[in-house]
Amino acid sequence: GNSVTQMEGPVTLSEEAFLTINCTYTATGYPSLFWYVQYPGEGLQLLLKATKADDKGSNKGFEATYRKETTSFHLEKGSVQVSDSAVYFCALRGSARQLTFGSGTQLTVLP
Amino acid sequence: SAVISQKPSRDICQRGTSLTIQCQVDSQVTMMFWYRQQPGQSLTLIATANQGSEATYESGFVIDKFPISRPNLTFSTLTVSNMSPEDSSIYLCSVEDANRQGASGYTFGSGTRLTVV
Q: Which of A14, A29, B50, B96 lies at 20 to 30 Å from B30 by C-alpha?
């Protein structure tokens, strides 16, 4: 079956630091890949997505590139802000159309 | 993208009782998904609900414990039956957003935070 392996947290960074959260997946066929974010006390929001190999999703300064050769979809941001503190989930959508989530990574950005 | 109204937002329930969670979508959708997020953990799919047919449950989840209704294309309910403290979680519904090119992502309800005492 499908699975998503996500970098263990929690991650603590200083403001303006570079962020990478690793995500690798196992799936048959050609899944779509997503990053979702859950801010404290809020619901789950789509951050970015990519639907085919070599696609780059981007939003709010975050980027992730769909790498089929390494089955990865790592999330990056060049300069994090305190407001980026949240839990980040990598997810994939397979042929059955439901999402499979990674374990989530708690990010805390300190001023 | 779709807008989902989920209620209740939270509840505290006695063990042995049942709670029904409702999700209303502002557009017609074929598939609705129900997830559970246990404290400090990721989201786990409970079942997929299609209008006009029985829900499809994931391994570890059964209809007797989590009955689902899907009476039309904009509404679904999930019932957590005969609750125990282990059922304390956030329950979320979700729908697939589709654009002209196909699926563009998924929208989630705001979640129901359930505490069983």
A: A29
pLDDT per residue as tens digits for the range A83-95: 999 999 999 998 7
**Separation of alpha carbons B97 and B33, rounded Å:** 12
Q: What is the pLDDT of residue B99?
A: 59
User: Exposed, middle or buried by CB within 10 Å (0-12, 13-18, 19+), for A92?
Assistant: buried
Write the Ramachandran bin of A78: left for phi over 0, alpha for psi from -120 to 50, otherwise beta. alpha
What is the number of other CB atoms lying within 10 angstroms of the CB of residue A63? 17
Instruction: Kindly list the residues from chain B whose CB atom is less than 8 angstroms away from the CB atom of residue A99.
Output: 33, 43, 45, 94, 106
Burial of B64 (0-12, 13-18, 19+ CB in 10 A): exposed
State how far residue B53 is from chain A, nearest Cα, in angstroms.
16
Secondary structure (DSSP) of A10-34? -EEEETT--EEE-EEEE-SS--EEE
Report, as an integer, the average pLDDT of B86-97. 93
pLDDT tens for residues B7-32?
A: 999 999 999 999 999 999 999 998 89
**Shortest distance, CA A81 to any CA of chain B (angstroms):** 23
From B1, B73, B77, B70, select the one nearest B30 (Cα to Cα). B73
